[in-house]
């Protein structure tokens, strides 16, 4: 229904049958068509959820209490709402909607709540990203290219991982300086490399309300061993991804649904020649991967195709505004 | 789909097309059938919302930030998530689902975020509920009966209202003792009465994230003048309601959608006889209403009918568990 076909709102005498339409009429004064559309859809789904399930006051108050606790436990370095979004599969879904990939591009996955903005910038390749003496040393030697195999130089690459105990630096109350994270630049031939440690599986934070939800659902808290990578380069779509170690006990049951077969890797072994070239021990572990970034233009086209398919499925007349769908009211 | 017909979850390689089903398979280990059903429906609606709107990462992160702020501003005496639920019409909807009323029962409305549990208990009728010297005195003289008109004695009745400036006691940082609220008992013939002040319209708290949302939506913050009542009596369905003053400028545009025609009243005038009987000034304002409580049994039957209609509309096989629908997996 468009604004034009809507009557004046009837805000009195609202019932389960007429409230949704009238709340949306009231909200329709919003001058931003995208906000208006998002609110209309959110209200429709929230109300349908309550009507379909016959949601009780007690259940809704428990939900209010849960959401309040999720908000309360958030700090500058802990984002429990992102964790909630992660364990409900919503984070992966939004990434796949916003960053669709052709078969030739590296797949994306969940950002997770542990990326920070204070990682040290490495001006040259070869730096040490993890200083944990208990971690098993691992050379990371990768390339970043476009989908046609052409190297991309000077891409900005955020990398981050846990320490050998499965904790990110930000999870330590006494953290003084960032560790296990860095911002790098790809060099000539799209190569970037650094010294890190072999990732380990770890539990997502389970002492908060999201942990309580997982316990209630009889789900485990673990993520399989992985290493995070995030790429930025003008002209290319932002890529948030991670590499997963094959054979991890949680490879098939990641608590946040991030694993994709194309991102699962076997660790290699540093050869004698590589040991000399990169200044690490021969025989130590090696993580290698060739990342492929998709152009912004190709991403835009893919998103447009998928958006059109989605609204045709709903039988709606839509148009794109800044690349995002809004109702076509003409 | 029932658990029996579901295969093992495929938690790897999730895409926008297969993630919802697989998240729900993972969540289906929950032994509580009602929780499992609520989670399944919540995940379905959340994911459908993202897919239908082509939700962007930026939009989702703004939502995460908004929800975090809603949680952060909550205190023991401020519940911003209830306020959010109120302004989206969800609170009124849930009340109408959980407390359906036959035509003979008093309609319910939103509880709002300002009910507290520390109101003074008045052991006798006739007490003073509001001590605000700037308020216009109002005698409240009501009865509570069943739907056949039989008086209900000894019902527990919570009443609450703002002061003359439109603020509830709990909104004052320096609040020392409750005011503008009380817990009463109906006497013989179901009568209850007390001294209060004429309600005034007031803005819901607009200095938090929900206020920001209303501003973005170009909505006003006002609730029309009203007085809250909540009834409890064994054997009768809990009634949360309020009375609204006819002619209020916000009667037709309540920010939280609570007004119902049957709850809108004209204030009367205290007669000479009433002035003597109730110890108030002749000619002062009078709020009178006959409330009708619905039995638990009648409410149960109404809820069951409406639940069955809702699941038949969805074409689902359901059964009731403690009065609430769950999928029928037999």
UniProtKB/TrEMBL annotation, chains A, B:
Record flagged with keyword Metal-binding: yes
GO terms of molecular function: catechol 1,2-dioxygenase activity; ferric iron binding
SUPFAM superfamilies, alphabetized: Aromatic compound dioxygenase (SSF49482)
Needed cofactors: Fe(3+)
UniProt domain Catechol dioxygenase N-terminal: residue ranges: 32-104
Signal sequence region: none
Keywords: Dioxygenase, Iron, Metal-binding, Oxidoreductase
Residues annotated as domain Intradiol ring-cleavage dioxygenases: 112-293
Gene Ontology BP annotations: catechol-containing compound metabolic process
Pfam families named among the record's database cross-references: Dioxygenase_C, Dioxygenase_N
Coiled-coil zones: none
Record has Cell inner membrane as a keyword: no
Homology family: Belongs to the intradiol ring-cleavage dioxygenase family.
Protein name: Cathecol 1,2-dioxygenase
Organism the protein comes from: Polychaeton citri CBS 116435
């Amino acid at each position: 229904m468009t604004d034009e076909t809507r009557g004046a709102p009837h805000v009195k005498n609202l019932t389960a049958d007429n409230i949704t339409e009238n709340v949306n009429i009231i909200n329709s004064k919003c001058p931003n068509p995208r906000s208006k559309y998002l609110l209309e859809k959110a209200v429709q789904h929230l109300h349908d959820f309550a009507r379909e399930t016959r949601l009780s006051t007690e259940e809704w108050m428990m939900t209010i209490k849960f959401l309040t606790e999720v908000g309360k436990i958030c700090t500058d370095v802990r984002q429990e709402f992102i964790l909630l979004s992660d364990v409900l599969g919503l984070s992966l879904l939004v990434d796949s909607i916003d960053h669709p990939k052709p078969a030739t591009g590296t797949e994306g996955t969940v950002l997770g709540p542990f990326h920070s903005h204070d990682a040290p910038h490495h001006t040259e390749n070869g730096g040490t990203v993890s200083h944990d003496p208990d971690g098993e040393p691992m050379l990371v030697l990768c390339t970043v290219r476009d989908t046609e195999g052409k190297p991309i130089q000077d891409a900005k690459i955020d990398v981050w991982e846990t320490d050998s105990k499965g904790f990110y630096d930000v999870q330590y109350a006494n953290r003084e300086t960032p560790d296990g994270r860095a911002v790098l630049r790809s060099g000539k031939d799209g190569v970037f490399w650094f010294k890190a440690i072999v990732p380990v599986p770890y539990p997502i934070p389970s002492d908060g309300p999201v942990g309580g939800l997982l316990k209630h659902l009889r789900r485990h808290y673990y993520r399989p061993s992985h290493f995070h990578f995030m790429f930025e380069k003008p002209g290319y779509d932002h890529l948030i991804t991670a590499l997963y170690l094959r054979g991890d006990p949680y490879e098939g049951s990641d608590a946040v649904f991030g694993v994709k077969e194309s991102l699962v890797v076997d660790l290699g072994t540093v050869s004698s020649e590589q040991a000399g070239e990169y200044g690490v021990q021969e025989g130590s572990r090696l993580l290698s991967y060739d990342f492929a970034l998709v152009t912004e233009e190709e991403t835009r086209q893919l998103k447009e195709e998928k958006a059109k398919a989605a609204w045709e499925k709903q039988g709606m007349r839509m148009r794109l505004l800044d690349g995002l769908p809004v109702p076509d009211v003409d």
